[in-house]
Amino acid sequence: MEKITVYLKDYIRESILAPSFKLLEALMDLFVPLLVAYIINEGIAKNNQSVIIRCFIYLIALAVLGMLFSFTAQWFAAKASVGFAGKLRQALFDQIQSLSYRQLDTLGTDTLITRMTSDINQMQTGLNLALRLLLRSPFIVFGAMIMAFTIDIKSAMVFAVTIPILCLVVFGIMLVSIPLFEKVQIALDKLLGKTRENLTGVRVIRAFCREEEEIKDFDDKSSLLTKLNEYVGRLSAAMNPLTYIIINAATIILIYIGALRVEMGILRQGDVVALYNYMAQIIVELIKLASLIITINKSLACGRRVEKIMEIDADMKYEDELKSKEDDQYSVVFNNVSFRYEGAAAETVENLDFKVKKGQTVGIIGGTGCGKSTLVNLIPRFYDADKGNVEVNGINVKEYPKDILLNKIGIVPQKAVLFAGTIRDNLRWGNENASDEEIYEALKIAQALEVVEGKEKKLDEWVEQNGRNLSGGQRQRLTIARALLKKPQILIMDDSASALDFATDLRLRQAINNLKNDLTVFIVSQRTTSVRNADLILVMDDGKIVGKGRHDELLKNCEVYQEIYYSQFPEERPSGKEVFTVA
Amino acid sequence: MPKNNSNSETLKKVLSLIRKYRFLVVLSIVMAAVSVVLQLYVPILFGDAIDTIKDIESINYVMLKDYLLKIALLSLLSALATWIMNLINNRISYRTVEDLRKKAIRRIQILPLSYLDSHATGDIVQRIIADSDQLSEGLLLGFSQLFSGVITIFVTLYFMLSKNVEITLMVIVMTPVSFLVARFIAGRSYKMFAKQNEARGKQTALINEMISNEKIVKAFAYEGKASKRFKDINEELCRYAQSATFFSSLTNPSTRAVNNVIYALVALIGSMKILNGSLSVGGITVLLAYANQYMKPFNDISSVVTELQNSLSCAERVFELIEAEAQSPEKEKELPEAEGDIDIENVYFSYDKSRKLIEDFSFHGKKGMTIAIVGPTGCGKTTLINLLMRFYDVDKGKIRVDGNDIYEVSRKSLRKNYGMVLQDTWLKNASVRDNIAIGKSDASDEEIITAAKRTHSWEFIRRMPQGLDTVINDDSLSQGQKQLLCITRVMLCMPPMLILDEATSSIDTRTEVYIQKAFARLMEGRTSFIVAHRLSTIRNADQILVMNDGKIIEQGSHEQLMKNNGFYTRLYNSQFAANES
Q: Which positions in chain B touch A196 (Cβ < 8 Å)?
C-alpha cells in the first residue's frame, strides 16, 4: 500500500488529530456512568442536593465538550480524507497519462475509469470513517472495561469474558459473510447480463421462438440468486439475537455478582448502576465496529485495485535529445519489423520491410485484422517493434525524444473521436496556437469547410462529448483537419474516409496531393479506389505484406489485390476467370 | 392530490404482490411487536433488580433471583422473536424480488417491440434489477422498521410514564430540539452536496472522455494539458467535497449532544424525585436507559421515510414495466410450413401516427423469388422486416403467406417460417453450440457441424479452444465471424422464407466472400428478402423495393427501374457508378 499511503503524507497532522479528538469525545462518554454513580452514591444516598446539581452541570459540560471535540475531529477527518482522495486521483490520472498503448490495451479503459471514479470515492469514504470511528469503538469497548476495573476488579471480570465472546460472534459472522457477499454479487451480475441479453436480442429471440427457453434460463439464474441471498441473510439474521442474549446474560451475572459485592460492603448501589451502564455501551459500539470493518474492507479492496495501476512502471523509455542527424531521402523505413500484441498467440505483423521516400503517398489495403492499423501505429512508436526497427527520417524511432517524433506525424485515427468543447478547441489539439486562418485552411483541405459553414456559430459551435451531435462523415473530416493543423511531415489516415462518399473522398485525396511540401501520406483503407493512385501500395494479408507496388503492377501479379479489387468492381473482372478461391 | 393517489395506488399493488405471503407478513408483525415490547420491558426488570440491592442489610436474594430469571427468560424469548422476524423478512423480501423479476421477464417476452424500441435497454435493466431490489428492501424492510420504530416509541413512552410522568413530559418536550438541529445541518449540507455533485459530474465527464480516448490524447501529446484540466476541476471538487463531508458529518454529534443534555436533565430531575421519595434508584436507571435510546427510533423513522419515498418511486417504475400493455393475444391457428408466397395488400403503417410512413403499399412475392430492398442508409429498411416478421402490426391492410392472413395465425408459427440474419448480429453469452442451435435445440452435433461447414464457419469454430463448447462473448469474434455464426443458425433450421441483411464495408473481403456464398446457399429455392448493398445482389434480384425516408417509393426489376429514370437511377449512379478514372 506504500504507493498509496504516500498521498496521506501531507495529511499526517490531520490523520492524527482526527482520531485523537474522537478519543477525547469518547472519554467524555465514558465519564457519564461514573458521574451517575456519584449522583446515586453521594447525592441520593447522602441526600446532598448540591452534589446532584454539580454533577448535572458536569454532565452538561461533558455533552458540550463532547460535541466540540467531535466537530473538531470531523473537520480534520474531512480534510484528510478529501485531500488524500484528491491527491490520489490526480496522481492516478497522471499515471494513466503515462501508460503506453500496450499497457492501455491490457488494462482496458473501463477498468481505468472505475479506478478513477468509484474506487477512489469508496476509499475516501472508508478513510473518513476509519479516521473517525476505527479507534473510537475499540476505545469505548476497552475503556468501558477499564472503567469497570477501576470500580471493582472482580465484577469487571465479567467484562473480560464477555468482550471476547462478543467479538467472536460479531466478527465471526462478518468474516463468514464477506466471501458470500461476493458470490451474491457474481450471481447478480449474471442475472443482469441475462436481462440485458434478453433486451438486446429480443428480435432474434422472437424470430427463433426462444421465449420459453429464455424465461427458463432467467428463472434458474434468478432462483440461484434468491437461494444465495437467503443463505447469507440467515447468517446475518442471527447476529442481533445472539449478541442480545450474550449481553443480557452477562448483565444478569454482573448484577448478581454486584449484589454479592454490595452485601460484602465492597460496592454501593450506584457502582452497580455504573457497571450496568458500561455493559450497555459495549454492545452498541461493537455492532458499529462490525459494519465499519465491512466498509473499510471494501475500501481496502479498492485501494489494492488502484495500487495495481499505480505500480505499473513506464515500459517505454524516450531519449532526452536527438543525437543523430536526420536524413532527407527516406521518410519512413521498416527494416524487417515484427510485432505481437500482448497475449496474442501469433505475430500480428511479420517481417514488414519497405522504404518510403519523402513526399510519397502509401496505400495500405487488406482485410480486417490483417495488421494494417498495427503497421501505421508503429511509425509514431505507439508500440515498439519486437524484431527489426522502424526509422523516421533515417533515424530509429527509439532514438527520438517523444515530442519531436510526435510533432512530425499527424494521425487521423480509425475512430473519429472529438471532445466536448468548441470546434476550434477540438482542432487546436493539433496546434494550440493555430490562428483562425490556419484553421480554415486545414478545414478546406479536409473538405470540412461545409461542416463549419453549416453551423450557426462556425468555429465556436459546441461539440458534444464524443462529437455526438455530428455525423460520422463530419467527424471524420474534422479529425483530418485536426491532424493537418499540426503541419506534419507524415500524415497517417487510418481508414478515416470510410464514412465519406466516393466523390468527397476523391476531392480530399486530391487536396492532400496538392499540398506543396514534402508531406508523406499513409492511407489505410478497405477500398481500392482510395489507394489506387498511391505511389506505393502495400497489400497485407494475415500480418504479412503480400504485395508491394503500384496499382497496375499489383493488378497483374498480386492475387490478394486482384481478389479485393474485383470483389469491389465485379464488372471489370476479366471474363472466364474464377477469382474467388474458397476452400 | 394526484401524487398521493398514485402513491396509494402503487402501495395497493405492492400489497397485492405480497398477498401470497400474508401469513408470513402477519407473523413477522407479531414477532416484531413481541421482540420490541420484551426488549423494552427488560430494562425495567433490570431496574427492579438493582432496586433490590439498595444496601447491605436489605438485599432480597429471592426477589433478585426471581427478577434475573425473568430477565433471562424474556431475553431468550425476545431474541427468538427477533430471529424469527429477521428470517421471515429475509424470505419475504427476496422471494418478492424473485416474483417481480419473473413477472418482468415474462412481460418482456410479450411486450410489443414498439415498447422495447422506445425504451433504453439500460433503463429497463435498471427496472428489473436495481429498482425491484430497492422495492423489496426499501419497502418491505422499511415497513418493518417503521412498524418497530412506532411500537418502540409508544411502548417506551408508556413505560416511562409508568415510572414518572413529569420526566416523561420533559423528554417529550425536548424531542423537537434534536430534530431542529438535524434539519438545520441537513439544510446547510444539502447546498454543499449539490455543489459537490455538480463538480463531480464535471470531473466524471472529463475522466470518461479523456481515458476512453487515451490513445488519441497520447497521439496528440495532450497528456500535460489533460492533466492540467483535470487538476483545476479536481481542486474545485476537493473544496466542495470537504465542506460537504464536514457539514454532513455534524448531524450525529449534534443530535447526540442534544440527547446527552436530555440525559443530564433526566439525571437531575430524577435524583431530585428520589430525594422526595417519588422515584427509586432502579427507576432512574430505567429512565436513563430509555432516555439514552429514546432518540434512536425517531432517527430510524426519519431515515426510513426518505427510503420509503425512494422505494415507492422505484416500485412505480417496476409496475410500469410489468403492467405495460402486452401485444395482442396470440391466435390459436398455426401457420403450416409455408411454400413462400407472400402478398402484401394495401398496407398502411407508421411508428408515430403523426408522421405517415408506408401508405397503400402492395406487393406480391412468389415462392423462390429474391426481393432486394435498396435505399440510402437510414431509409428505414428495417420497417419492412418489422412488418414481415410481425414485430410490428400494420395499421391497415393485409399481409398473407400462402394466402393465410398473418394476423389470423400465431406469431410463433409465422416466425418459424422465416430465417432472419440481421447485420446487427446478436449472440448469447453461451457456447457456440447453443448459439447455433438456437432455432433447433435438439440438433445433433453432426447437423450443427454440417451447417457450419456449409457456411464456412466450421474452419474458425474448429480452431477455437473448445470447439463447439467454447463460450463466446461479444469480443471473442470478429464482426464477420459473428455474422457467419448467425447465418449458420438459419442454415440449421432451413425455413422456407428468408430475411437477410447484407454485410457492409466493416467486414473484410475474404469473409465477405464467405458470407456471399453462404447467403447464396441459403437462398436456393427460398423466398428471400435481402437488404442489399452490393451491386450484383441488386441486379440479380427478381424484384427491387426502393426505400427512402421510411417510405417505399419505387418497385420493379433493375431494368424497369433504370428505365423509369427516377430515384433508383440516381441512387444507382451515385452509389455504385462513381468509379474514379
A: 121, 125
Which residues, numbered 215 to 254 in chain B, qualify as contacts with chain A under a Cβ-Cβ cut-off of 8 Å? 215-223, 225-227, 230-231, 234-235, 237-238, 241-242, 245-246, 249-250, 252-254
Distance, CA of B189 to CA of B244 (rounded, Å): 6
In the DSSP assignment, the letter for residue B431 is B
C-alpha cell at A198: 434478453
Chain B residues near residue A53 by CB distance under 8 angstroms: 268
pTM: 0.73
Closest to B230 measured CA to CA, from B211, B208, B214, B206? B206
What pLDDT, on the 0 to 100 scale, is given for residue B509? 63
> What CATH architecture applies to the domain A1-136+294-314?
Up-down Bundle (1.20)
What the block records as the C-alpha cell of B41 is: 420491558
Query: Nearest-CA neighbor of A359 among A448, A255, A490, A463?
Result: A490
Q: How far is CA B170 from the centre of its chain?
A: 49
Fold observed for domain A330-572:
Rossmann fold (3.40.50)
A318 CB burial (10 A radius; 0-12, 13-18, 19+): middle
B519: three-class secondary structure by DSSP: helix
**B110, B264, B574: residue with CB nearest A63:** B264
Q: CA A485 to CA A443: how far, in whole Å? A: 9
Helix (H, G, I), strand (E, B) or coil at A240: helix
CB-CB under 8 Å, B535 with A582: no
Residue B108 in contact with partner chain A when CB distance is under 8 A: yes
Task: Select the more confidently predicted residue: A580 or A305.
Answer: A305
> Amino acid identity, residue B407?
Y
In chain A, whose CA is at the least distance from the CA of B206? A420
Instruction: Please give, one letter per residue, the 3-state secondary structure of A4-23.
Output: HHHHHHHHHHHHHHHHHHHH
Provide CATH 1.20.1560.10 ranges for chain A: 1-136+294-314
Q: CA A382 to CA B218: how far, in whole Å? A: 9
Cα B163 to Cα B168: distance, rounded to the nearest angstrom: 9
How far, in Å, CA of B274 to CA of B252, rounded? 32
The residue of chain A with its CA nearest to that of B265 is: A56
What's the average model confidence in pLDDT over A218-225? 94
Predicted confidence (pLDDT) at residue B580 exceeds the cutoff of 90 = no
* 3-state percent helix, strand, coil for chain A, nearest multiple of 5: 65, 10, 25
Q: Residue A324, exposed/middle/buried by CB under 10 A (0-12, 13-18, 19+)?
A: exposed
CA atoms within a 13 Å half-sphere pointing along the CA-CB vector of B266: 30
Band the pLDDT of A83: cuts 50, 70, 90. very high
**Sign (positive or negative) of CA dihedral A15, A17, A21, A27:** positive
Span(s) in chain A for CATH 3.40.50.300: 330-572
Q: Out of A95-99, A511-515, B1-5, pick the least confident.
A: B1-5
Q: Note the pLDDT of residue A454.
A: 80
Q: Is B494 left (phi over 0), alpha (psi -120 to 50) or beta?
A: left
pLDDT, tens only, B210-241: 888 888 888 888 888 899 999 999 999 999 99
The SS3 of residue B367 is coil
A580 touches B: beta carbon within 8 Å? yes
- Sheet-wide strand order for B551-556: B418-421, B497-501, B527-531, B370-374, B543-548, B551-556
SS3 A412: strand
